[in-house]
Specification:
single chain, about 450 residues, mainly alpha, 18 helices, about 80% helix, about 0% strand, globular
Amino acid sequence: MAVTFSEALNRSRMHPFQWAIVATCMLVLVCDGIDLQLLGIVAPLVIDSFDTDSTTFGWAMGAALVGFGLGSWGGGWLGDTIGRRWTLALAALVFSLATVGAGTSAGVWHMAGWRLLGGLGFGAAYANALAMAGEWLPDRWRAVAVSTLSVGTPIGGTIVGWIGPDLAVAHGWPGTFTRIGLATLVLVAIIAAVLRDSPSFLLARGRREAALRNARLVLREDTELVPERHETDAGDGPSVGVLHPSNTRVNTGIGLAFAAAALVAYSILSWSTVMLTERGFSLAAAGNAVAWAGITSMIGSIIVGLAMRRFGSRPVMLALSGGLVVLLIALGWAVEGLAPNPAVPPAQAQQTLVTWLIGAAGGFFSAAIAGMYVMMTHAYPQSCRSAGIGFGIFMSRVGAIAATAFGGGLLALGGGSTIPFFAVLTLSAAVIAAAAFVVDRHVPSLAEAERRRVAAAGA
């Protein structure tokens, strides 16, 4: 009996090659995070070297975010066109060489140009790594793996936070960029050697022999495979792009919710130290609160995949939205209760409460973001899966840039009060529920998936 590659995977045990695919995609995202976060680690040295101020240097800092958004969508389209494997190799080549190039920068605009180019590679790598891994995994592992992969970039940022300062002391910031960029170039060879485009992708493009050859890497017996069909596919093959009308509800729900979740995340991560030090926290204590958010972010991102696999994506996204609303209201109330005077340190109990609330919020907003990746991997048809994930990442960059650009203005708008800041964040957290109400292709719960499987077998 002819089956799709996804159906064949669901009937088979996991093969070591599938774990190698996931591990390589995780390595790509970790290296992506190392190169992406490097400038933030050595920024004080670069600012001094350029003899500029932090406001002007912000253009160089923000360029990678802009490139990331554009690269995720454009790179996603390229992955749907020529394949995830070679698009990933090209993305790794671009961001590695851009990191090397950044080490030659002589000024802010020179650095901004290299970072913009690197951002294109960062975004393309992210979209295609998630699509690649998802297509090689059975349903029982896909949600967990995709949500876990989403922490690859934060892990890379943590690694460069550990090694970056020592490299900068030993080699200067230009030498640090050069060495890290050259090291991540090794990724190109690893991608070419390990990764293969999925049989689902190849069958959809009429490359049957290549599809069967790659299927034999994981299936323990020869299986007659047919292209995957989606409700939006037309004629004899997939023809749907990410902006096709059939994707309107997916695009709208995920686009709004992803932008809102990123706005909350980047507002908390970017402005908490400013907000808290103005209310008596030491810089170390404020940094510790943000660090806790980073730790809980990784935990939340992994847990959400398990939750979506068990309960489905709709109730999980509703729960995350409601929980984040409650946490942000509580956090706003706790921060407002601190004396707006940096000379008056908060009581230990107040400081602990604020720190834990920020940590809890980090777990929730990161779980919401990781949940979007799981939903996109499931909701978009094979014909535009990379581009669909890229579109979602593009919308998240819109939220991130808005948070970075306007968060300080919202804090200033309050005239010493954080109410406008937290009001916007709370409203944004409520918008995350759009993913639950608007999206019409949710990840099914285990029980629902089993009912569908039994119904299909009976038919």
